[in-house]
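user: At home tonight, take the chain set out below, taking as long as you need, and be ready to discuss the fold:
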Amino acid sequence: DMSKGAPTTTATTANDAVRAAFREYYFKQAKMIEPPGDVEKREFGYMQFGGHGMVRHLSFKSTGELVATLITQVPSDVYCSNALYRFPTLAMQEKQWLGADLIFDIDGKDLHLPCVPSHSYPVCANCGHVSPPPSSDDKEYACSVCGGKKAEHIVIPCAKCIEGSKKEARRLYEFLTGDLGIDRQNVHTYFSGNNGFHFHVQDDAYRPLDSQARSDLVGYLAGIGLLAESVGVRRSPGGDNNLAFVKFPRSGLGSGWRKKVADKLKIDTTSTLRLTNIVREKGGYAGFKAELDAMTREMGVRIDPQVTTDVHRVFRMPGTLNSKSGLAKVRVSDIESFDPFTDACLLGDAKVKVRLKAHAKVRLKGENYNISKETAELPAYAAVYFICKGLAEAAATTAT
């Protein structure tokens, strides 16, 4: 219902341009949409352009019914539960939870990469003016139009950002298939549609796990809470808390975190003397424990813990578009060669006129878009990328 507090005309035009491109995608590329197994036991939800909040607690009997809804509603974002429910459309306490796929989210913004400030555009929280990326980190932000001091930051991920997320994704894949022994065929990797990767583990052994068990799993993957004792360093009995002695665990250092740490410290179960010296160098038990914590955290995977531990959340559905970028959440078969700006850039190329709010550049489908002039006519996939990022607005559209 547009009559109640209708959005301003520019927002509407921008939404219209993006919506038209999204509708064409859902109409022409329905084969990309990848609904989960047991579709009728899942809860679905979606966000609407210019709408507020999520339409939730939906269920579909088939893929066809789901696709039809996407074409008629043209949502800005589409979500699906990792959980299976007996009654997906009822209120949460009445759904009857039947288990959930295990999911992981690696988000580029959690990696705090040093390159980010150079391609971050501050948007003034007060007047909405977009500034170019700051030339140095240390300057206090002040809007050049209204002098406002608060800004939101729009990030255009660069090749280094994507490489950073890929590195984390490779590491997670190694943990899942190596340490946890999950069959490679049950680990599905997806590009998130913006700046990260999602992993869906479809393995019946993990489906019944509750939040606490999933939380323990996150701790393991993130390298949190490894005991010094498990790599052979123990507190000496007696008064001083910080005295330590070395006694290797009976089961050895051959697998999991023990092996990772042993390799890093270059020790094995014959290295009592070497490890004793390392502990002494670090100043005793507490010093070694602190060093161990830092080391395992560094070697662990940075994943968003809430995504994995919440067994009732709805999660972006594979094959659907991400309104933060206009790119699609797509399956990644080979992470080395995967290029999100080509492989997930699936919108059409009908021309769209845009007004740019800042000089911006991005490489999409192998073309460089480096736009310094104010208005430009771009193929829909590039126009939508800049509009979704908040760096452009659609100029008055011509009738199609």
